[in-house]
Description:
single chain, alpha/beta, Rossmann fold, six-stranded parallel β-sheet, 6 strands
Amino acid sequence: MPLPVKPLRQVVVAVTGASGARYALRTVQALLAAEVDVVLLLSRAGADVLQYETGIDWHGPAVAVEGRMRKHFASQLLRHYAVDDLFAPVASGSSAPDAVIIVPCSMGSVGRIAAGLGASLIERVADVALKEGRELIIVPRETPLQVIHLENLLRLARAGAKIVPAMPAYYQRPETLADLDAFMAGKILDLLNIEHSLFPRWTGGPGKDNA
Length: 211
């Protein structure tokens, strides 16, 4: 008989300097709706891209940014630490989060994590997730991928990370960008065994038996 799935207590969501910050926002929203405590981290480039793509300005001191994040998501279940704060609780294996999601994940971040570098809090929490056997979900956003990118992603997959490319599907017939954001957030939540209704499940095309 399978063991019951342990409910998640805390998840880190990290935003790095690749296009696709909307995916992170929708993922955080879905996690908070599922009553999961979220630690939201931003690389410096991630904050820049977030502002450029969405108009949301989360630059500044960590305490002030945390307040703006809580207001944006209307939730107190959210924490934020500066990207260079290696004294943050989530940087320690003794208080490791249940899962770490890096969405979107730049190829620079992929390379540094694959090399075991822990120079920033984002890189450190990813390393902690791998060494403590917790879920590490990488959502790379780059195209085309060259050999070094692919080798680094393979190295992370072999180390235990789940690689979830930012490839929203169209079988659910999305009508808005929000539908595409929700699909990616749903695929992430699927890996964490969190129930959701972010996108309709595939039931087969008309007249098809899916054999």
